[in-house]
Request: fold
Amino acid sequence: MIFRLTFIVQILIVFSVCTCGNTKSSDNAPEQTKSSQSVLSEQQIDSLELFFQSKGVLSFNPTDINLKKDFEILNEDNTVYATLNLSLDKIIIQGKHFSLNEFANDNSFKSQYQFFPKEFFPDQSIIQFEYASLTNDVAEIFINKEHSKKKKIKLSTHIFKVESWKKHIVGCMIDFNVKINPIRAKMLDNSKSLGYENSGEDYIFVISEIVGDWVKIECAEICDYPCSSGKKYNGWIKWKAGNKLLIRLLYSC
Reply:
């Protein structure tokens, strides 16, 4: 089961922050609280972008129409770097033709063309890029973030959807090492564990909230995994420790 895997991924990645005001004050307190939350929210979004070193994620939108369309990745001068079509299983990259799925599964091809998107599983219709900027309906994307290789994608075709890190992460399935990162009742290292690590049960969890270094996760009845009606393991885990990511986002069962 994916939730028993041990890993600490050391790459730039994923997240955001939600906060709630809970203090009572004078008649104009709600307005003051809202203002404070807005300022804090902006600061937290900036912190997320700083952590990931990108603005957010560009995700392929796998509609029936989009699956049949060609889409282009452009060079800085607007010449075509690559053309992809998932339905036809093709990629033309720098003038060379390949099977898209063969290309995706061959590291020598990807290394030759420095093509390493955030997620690249065309057989599952999953293609994602981190983006560095958005200008005039064009996204500047990383095709190889490790080496700061960037290209461009036009957004006018609506083949890709643009998401901030927060929007991308909240609601996503999650994988984590429950033994070293137990689900806790509160956002405290010494908070009571909810006991999932010793339950012997397998659940699918999704992220519902992000606060600082913590994410709140909830059981989700997807991928043919049920949630126990008698036990609630919804709680908090750490998503990062310093500059290390402690979780992994999942995009398919």
